[in-house]
Amino acid sequence: MDLPLSDLCRAEFAHTTTFLNTATSGILPRAAVAEVRALAEASGAGLPAGFGDFDRVNRVRAAFARLVGVDAGRVAVGSSVAAHVGLVSASLPAGCEVLVPEGDFASVMNPFVVRGDLKVRFAPLESLAEAVDAGTTLVALSAVQSADGRTADLAAVRAAAAAHGARVLVDATHAAGWLPFDASPYAYTVTAGYKWLLGGRGASYLTVSEEAQSGLVPLHAGWVAAESMWDATYGPMRQLASDARRFDESPAFLPYHAAEPSLALLERVGIEAVHAHDTALAARYRAGLARLGHEAVPGGAPIVSVPGLADREPALLEAGIVTAVRAGALRASFHLYNTEADVDRLLNALEG
To answer: pTM for this one?
Structure first.
């Protein structure tokens, strides 16, 4: 890493607020903003460059694959976690059981619930592994809970699923980008690109194991899902892509153009360094909360949720401190563009 994170924050980002809300949406780095602006201006000028760049999308695919430890051939690109989960849901035979943590993010469970012919069973996150049984077909869960930062025991869930012949789908939206995360052991992972990955809404990633690829039907296959997409723009395609690209949606180019410099920045800094930085800020905040007599939801993630303080969010925003209210609690989330001064500013505001 060329710069300390505090200096990198000033060099790479241009936010004007005390932004403690990455769990809602991350901040675009300056370079990503420039790429979005360049594409939009080229489109507005009617230039060919304004069409968008598929080669760039494939470079983003490869960068995400490196980030989560899989081959690029296991990564499909799309627009939302819900669309990816919906594809997996559609592949399940009627009557299958899907096990989901209670209170997990809606996009992880609703595509299974709305089928109507699947058995969706819920269990507490802390005992999810114990709830897997011989009737479970798929376990679907978030690696880190959006509402309060609680972290799943993924190793225990994997072991329980393997013991009962079940597959696992992990939503890595609140893990990839700050937490070293390995997607390779899972049949499916889904990740939104606009939070900890510092991209724009409209970029998302689906990883599919080689074994699971054979049973997943690319129901929304367009010409981009073909082995040779430029030969498949009209009429039925002759051959689907031989790898996970067959599950691609046609990309929204603006967020994918933004994603390339954003992922490059994360690679340059290194996820281990981001993890150390983010969790240290969260620990500083937790310690300060304890001094003020407030009790946060236990955990070690850079998402910190405090019941009883939700009513403070409007005043914090008025003071230029951006947080969120989720599940009735005040939620703050810390990422590489945050500093100790940001944490102290929030604590001082809560104290005052």
So the answer is: 0.95
